[in-house]
Amino acid sequence: MLPEGETSTSTFQFVLSYLLAYVLPVVVFSTVVVKYSKPFVQKQLRLRRTAKLVDGDSKDGHWLYGHLKKFPFDKYEGLLNMFGMTKTQPALFSYWMGPLEMFMHMYHPDVVKTILSKSSPKGEGYQTIMSPLLGQGLIVSNGERWKRHRRLLTPIFHFNILQQHCEVFNTNCERVINWCEEVASSGRAADIADLASETSYKNMMECMMSQEVDLGKNEDYNQIVREAAQIMMLRWFNPLYHYDFIYKMTKDGKRFYAITNKIQKKVGEIIAERRALLESVESDLVETTRVDDKATGESFDFRKRKGQYVDFLDVLIQTKDQSGVGLTDRDVMDEVRTFFSAGQETVAYALSWFIYQLSKHPDFQERCRQEINEAIGSRPEIKISDMNNLPYLTQCLKESLRLMPVIHFVARQIDEDMTISHRFNDYKEIKLEKGQKVTVNIFAMHRHEEIWKNPLEYNPERFAPENMVGRPSYAFIPFSAGPRNCLGQHFAMHQMRVIIAQILRRYEIYRDEETPDPKPIPGLSLQSENGIMVKLRPV
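Request: output the structure for the sequence above.
Response:
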């Protein structure tokens, strides 16, 4: 028999070891579960509370896959079905991507203005999926970095610089006209989207980095960026691929990162070479030029290659903030990749859909042609100063951008509590809490019957000055709107007007019963899976 003291000690040790072995793990486990599950539960309660405010007792979504089947992201049918929602829920509805994730989906100016008038960050998907291709450029970056870069990049699109770029647009139209001549001679339909893509590619490479390109030879920047964008969209629609460690093991992931590495290497070499040239003190290959901005009255001095125009890269390397600090090579690389990836394909398809609309409406096309001939005459080049003399052409282009907005949605994740309201519920306030994800469906808003009369009809008169009076400012936003709108929208509009004007001066664009209709497909931009086929004949 053990002494009494030893029995007491043994009992204490037993109880202590029991607690350590069985109770403590339960307590630790429970604490961890509560700590990490509490935010998840709170988020789900918030999402359902917000959805109740917006949708009432609607049970439109499926309990498991939400709205993914009714509104598939990767099918044109999904866009059309979302447009149909404007008739039953005319301002917004809660879009469930499965049972746990909800986006507030908006398509009326009353609520869209509240969201886009702020500089809220883009959604999480932009960082996860787009940043490997675009880096931390203007599309992806947020907060103070975005604000600083936005200010520093503004000189790129000043009037004088755009005027010089119009010369590039005109020069590259020579290849466009040669293509038109070949198509007209053949009598067969041809894909205008391919030509538009190649032309916008040449324009971007020359205006951005003064890089001459030889189309059709070897693997060029345009081809690999387009491939990267296609792979990126496949990743977007597969939630498992949102995890980098999984995606990098897949065939698509390996190819995607191989492409991004190749792009970074090529762009990095160009930036280093240009910076060395511009910063060389004694070089007789550079000179200083002054760029005057007539709109603001500001002037900027830039060093440039002697005898050359100021391109985007010249500005990116030399622009500085109020403290005299400029962009690093990495910053410049991110913005170059962003300008090209965001600007090239969107301009190509915006131009292609515009040409398609003109091929369907010969009366509007002829009126554009007459206006071009009166404004330009026999002068071979089209200048930036001519743009104000082409109001009807601009109306027709805007109407095409309304019906077929290439950027058909934008996303935000609000970083503060917001209150929205709209006329369809007598402006009753709806609170959106910090962290709420929002998508603005530009496609649906541009076809909204409460905003546009006969919205499916192509009618350029909608954009005549007298018909725009009283229209909500956020009703037409092909380049987004608010502080995060597209910085390069004037560059895009000038480029498209120069190209189409040069075509219409010489050729009629038309379609007949043999010409196949395009099959729209939404991706990062609104494209056509079978091209955009048109026919041409001399005027």
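Residues 51-538 form a domain with the Cytochrome p450 fold (CATH 1.10.630.10).
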